[in-house]
Amino acid sequence: MPAQNRRVLVRSIDDITLEEVPVPRPGDNELLIRSTVVGVCGSDTHAALGHHPFIDLPYRPGHEVVGVVEAAGARAGGFAPGDRVIIEPNLYCGRCAQCRSGRYNICRQLEVFGCQTPGGMAELFTIAAGRVHRVPDEMSDLQAALVEPLATPVHAVAKAGDLTGRTVAVLGAGPIGLLVLAAARHAGAAGIVATDLLDTKRERAVRLGADEALPADAADLTEQAQAVLGGPADVVFDCVAREQSMAQAVDLVAKGGRIIVVGVGAAGATPIRLDLVQDREIRIEGSLMYTVGDYRAAFDLITSGIVDAEAIVTATYPLEEAGAAFAAALRPEHVKVLVTVAAP
Description:
- This protein has 344 residues and is of the alpha/beta class.
- It has 2 domains: 4-146 and 307-340, Quinone Oxidoreductase, Chain A, domain 1, CATH 3.90.180.10; 153-286, Rossmann fold (3-Layer(aba) Sandwich).
- It has helices at residues 42-48, 97-100, 141-144, 147-159, 175-186, 199-207, 221-229, 243-252, 274-279, 292-303, 309-312, 322-329, and strands at 4-12, 15-22, 30-40, 65-72, 84-87, 90-91, 111-112, 124-128, 132-134, 167-171, 191-196, 212-215, 233-238, 253-261, 283-286, 313-318, 336-340.
- The radius of gyration is 20 Å and the shape is globular.
- The model has no long low-confidence stretch (mean pLDDT 96).
């Protein structure tokens, strides 16, 4: 075991480096894990740009992590060196009312591994064994890297209720929007419209199952979407979460319909037409992360081939080029960018 451990440090989008720190030792209930593949999330790039309301700079990223167990603490049962694993990064207290009801994704003291605590974009890291899931033998590292980002859309789609035969609009065709699209289609949505500003993202949304993908800045967006869906959308998933997208969501959704806010909004106030929300009985609901059931559903969607990792993962970079990986993740031609960690 080496004495030093390389870990990514993000000070800004233009200042992403490797720091050397001592190799951590697992506590009694912890695992020491060697990273193999780590995803770059939209939250990571927002944080690096200084735009994330809940992640302070500098930070040490890595919450979409695939790895191999190197060592286990004395009470970290169920795992052994050599086990392939992924992490579930929400770190919760287990005591508050939300945790006791099973909604630990909204724990009152929630922290996210790799966001508020040092993460797994490193050679080695430790984490509680209870935050780790074993990867099935038949699942590749590439596929396993999508379980965490897919679990968020799975959770959002579940919050929308039964989608069988219903119509859906997905605002934003980035990684989360595309995975919401896939999860909604699997949940039985009869018609799906996606929106985005970029041609390339709209084209990819259609390839991945949208009935139509429309320019997000179209003056007649509502009319175009209704023409495709046969009327207003029963459910709108806002994967952008900005003033303009929320205004569009209110215009697109049916009376009595539901808006699920999946994207991370900007800090501060976001204007919204409450007169229309009240008059049309529109239900607006946030969706944060996931719980273990969403993780299991994400596993199933990937192993069954419903979500094609090859279509989602568009670039990989070695750990030494983490800065280039962050830069690539901001470019419109990419969906999911991964950082790979070479074995010693």
